[in-house]
Design goal:
Layout: H1 2-30, H2 47-50, H3 69-73, E1 87-89, E2 94-98, E3 108-112, H4 116-119, E4 124-130, E5 135-142, E6 150-154, E7 162-169, E8 178-186
Parallel strand pairs: 1-3, 2-8
Antiparallel strand pairs: 3-6, 4-5, 4-7, 5-6, 7-8
Length: 187
């Protein structure tokens, strides 16, 4: 009986390992860079399309007189910084954004859709994997409400153009308790 149990255990482990390799292979295949010869690939811009006409120089305003001392003493409060808009990704979904859309200093805020069973009550370990091999380990915080998902904040300085796999560990009790999402940052 011991031999049959160990064979089943070994068979189960090898099946899980095969599924992991298959899942990662599929993820990297989906995130691959399209070749210029493939039919769905975007056409490279022509040199004329890249050149933008320069705007004419604006005239300089005339110098002003110094304000009175009473006016100088009151300094206006800086306007509150605009909070970054969260971007939602459905389960196994993909989000495409441009590097220019990521403002410096503001985190890229992602809302990852996930049901309550998978989300759990506490923060969830998450990884952001670039196809070039860079890995960012972080945490995703659960959002209040039913089936509201988790919130993930990413420093835009870490993101460069390319494809990323976002992998969040779930609270589910099953092998490969993970949810995967895809992020594409365009130049």
């Amino acid at each position: 009986m011991q031999t049959q149990d160990s064979q089943n255990s070994t068979r189960r482990r090898s099946m899980i390992a095969g599924l992991v390799v298959l899942g990662l292979g599929l993820a990297f295949w989906l995130l691959r860079e399209p070749s210029p010869s493939s039919p769905g690939a975007p056409k490279p811009p022509t040199p004329d399309a890249e050149r933008q006409p320069e705007p004419p120089p604006s005239p300089r305003p005339a110098p002003r007189a110094a304000p009175p001392a009473a006016a100088r003493a009151v300094t206006p409060k800086p306007a509150p910084a605009a909070r970054p808009t969260p971007r939602r990704i459905s389960s196994s979904g993909r989000l495409s954004t441009t590097r220019a859309a990521l403002r410096d200093g503001d985190a890229l805020v992602l809302i990852l859709e996930m049901d309550d069973e998978a989300r759990g009550a506490g923060p969830r370990p998450a990884k952001l994997v670039h196809v070039g091999g860079r890995v960012l380990e972080t945490t995703a915080t659960p959002l209040p409400g039913t089936n509201s998902g988790v919130r993930l904040e990413i420093d835009p300085a870490w993101l460069g153009p390319g494809h990323y796999l976002i992998q969040v560990e779930t609270a589910e009790r099953r092998p490969l308790a993970l949810r995967r999402y895809f992020l594409e940052v365009l130049e």
